[in-house]
Structures are given as C-alpha cells and as structure tokens.
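Quick log. Single chain, no ligands specified.
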Amino acid sequence: MLHIGNHLSSSKGFMHMGKEALQLKADTFSFFTRNPRGSKAKDIDDNDVTAFLKLAKEFNFQKLVAHAPYTLNPCSNKKEVREFAYNTMTDD
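-> predicted structure:
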C-alpha cells in the first residue's frame, strides 16, 4: 500500500500536525525534531501527544518520520561541531 505524507512544521504541536496531514489527505508526515539549524528542542506536551495518538489511531496513521537538524555533522574536523552533533543526537 502507498502511504502519502509531507513535511510539516512542529511549532504548533503533534495534534496540529495530525489535523494538517488529514486536511491534505495524508496518512503520515515528517517533522524536524527541533529547529532545522539546531538549537534547543521544544518541550513535549504530554496532553498534545496523547490527543495526537488518539487521532492517529482513529485515522490509521502510519509511521511518522522524525528529521534531525541539517547542522548535525559528527564527522567534522572541528571538535565543537562533532560535540554538538553527538549531544543533539543523544538529546533527540
């Protein structure tokens, strides 16, 4: 079976992404785990996640794809860049 989704902004939470995906007739979506350029991840709202999981079950959502920031470079020759990558991956 073919699953259709797109990349959505996580700024308004999982429930908002789920509703947006449904408006687009999608059964999955991808999202950044944090700002695409790195920085701190947004705190996860347990109520938002619970509401989304209920919606996802009701509408048979498929697996979601979490996208890491573009700035991760664990192979950099700069120690601070490598450390940022490792710390961010551990946090995510």
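The chain has one domain: 5-91.
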